[in-house]
Amino acid sequence: MTKIYPLTPALCEIAKWAFTTRRVDRSDVRGLSVSFQTAKAGDLMLCEIVEIGQHKKLQLAERRVSLSYPGDLVVVCLGDRYAPDQFMASAIIDDDLIDLVAGGGVAGRIDAAHDFMDDATRLKPLGLLTGEQGRVMNVADYALPPLPANDRVTVIGVFGASMNSGKTTAASSLAHGLMRSGYSVAGVKATGTGAFGDFNSFEDGGAPALDFTDVGMATTFRRPLEQIEQGFDTLVSTAAARGAEVVVVEIADGVFQQETRDILKASHIRDRLDGILFAAPDALSALGGVMVLERLQLTPFAISGMVSCSPLATAEAAEVTGLPILSREDLWSPEAIALHVAPLMRRDHQGVAA
User: Fold this and answer.
1) Helical (H) or strand (E) element with 308
2) Contact partners, residue 268, CB within 8 Å, separation at least 6
3) Interatomic CA distance for residues 93 and 101, integer angstroms
4) pLDDT level of residue 126 (50, 70, 90 thresholds)
5) Closest Cα partner for 220 from 249, 188, 255, 260?
6) For the whole model, what pTM was predicted?
7) C-alpha angle 248/253/258, rounded to 5°?
């Protein structure tokens, strides 16, 4: 049973604010609107947790997890989600309760779920946050200023066969190895669902991180390709302006996910990549991923991911793909960076044009 609250902005001051809201200036909140029928992706919502389900913790804007309790007040974003291992969801409020579809603070209506998922954590929307003149607040209002493409910094893309193929470990390990090799590096998560796992993984390895929430998207699922491309340009250019000479860019999900497929098929992002590291869970996925990329006239410089955890799977993947298989320890190594990544650089790390 939900609590009865007087609907005032003061409720937002005692709420838990999710990771997806981390750029929002909380002092901008002036009111709450119950015009849920007009809500759109990225809008900020104050909700009450009614029932704990799949997501038992919320990732906070402060980049820590908070155990959730029935009755908690939370500020999250309305958003779409695509996650084959979890939920597919739409940025729609069409009932008294909605679903928490991602622990980073994305809520909506679940349309499909993996058989192994518990029922979603259920939220009661209390109001859409409004600012000056009653306008609903959206994460896009707090995006980094758009920047044109930067053509001088080296950009390495990390793609994968699927969710949980080892992309995040591969990307953060590559960034860490580049740093150990003397390069100034930044990590970027260009697509996906707002959560701090990938963000923190880059920073744990020493690389400053940015992601799509910095350019005003709680998730990139169902966002126009042009918006994702502009976000990519801004993230890479911002990283370069802050001193990066190499940017490692992780692309979410697998090569068959719609945004990833569009990026690989024909996009400014594809054309901008100086190299691709591919993450795969096993040898068959490694071979299939390489075949998909080669049909698009792309060839990864190496394979990494879960396949590299097994000596037998590593040997199989190396045999069938003819590519180097690099474990996370390999990617940490300046010797591996010099052999496999340094030849891809647009400029050497003394800043002299190649």
Assistant:
1) none
2) 149, 229, 232, 233
3) 13
4) very high
5) 260
6) 0.94
7) 110
